[in-house]
Design a protein that fits this description.
Radius of gyration: 17 Å
Order of helices and strands: HHHHHH
Distance between the termini: 33 Å
Number of helices: 6
Largest sheet: none
Helix content: over 70%
Number of strands: 0
Strand content: under 5%
Structural class: mainly alpha
Length: 166
């Protein structure tokens, strides 16, 4: 049946990548990390297009941002016909764009699953910094540290379970 991969949320990919790192499975590790960074890249795109969002105010920039998100999702659908990996990245970028817009518009009141929200936020803050908005730079540092700790916890849990099994 091919590869199965969730793309709406990326929380599972942190755990999958940590386990793959523990097992030295480079292919699975790169696939999971690629999915995480695709989601993050999508939210960077949404933030670069809307570097200074105002909560609950529909900016004229949201329309083109939604169109670009839809284009990435459409490219993902077409790529699914020809490839077994690229479609995941393209669709995840599209979802990252849409999650980024939703998070910016709703002031994070509408959140995606578990660790997909912080992943979206990291992308939003990176996009804002790229466009000169350093307001949330401190949040970027905190979320990046928390994200690394979350991933390290997955790797530690894998190693602990491996030790327990032996």
């Amino acid at each position: 049946l091919g590869v199965r991969q969730p793309v709406a949320g990326v929380t599972n990919e942190y755990t999958v990548s940590a386990i793959a790192a523990g097992e030295a499975n480079a292919e699975e590790y790169m696939f999971a990390i690629g999915t995480i960074f695709s989601h993050m890249a999508g939210s960077v795109i949404s933030s670069v297009m809307n570097p200074r969002p105002e909560s609950f105010v529909l900016s004229p920039r949201y329309g083109p941002t939604f169109v670009i998100g839809s284009i990435f999702s459409s490219f993902g659908a077409v790529a699914a016909i020809f490839n077994q990996r690229r479609e995941f990245y393209l669709t995840t970028i599209g979802n990252g764009i849409l999650n980024g817009v939703t998070s910016m518009y709703s002031a994070n009141l509408i959140r995606t699953t578990s660790y997909s929200g912080p992943t979206t936020d990291i992308g939003i803050f990176v996009g804002q910094v790229l466009r000169g908005n350093r307001t949330n730079l401190w949040r970027l540092y905190i979320l990046s540290g928390l994200t690394f700790a979350f991933w390290l916890g997955g790797l530690s849990g894998y190693e602990a379970s491996k030790f327990k099994r032996e």
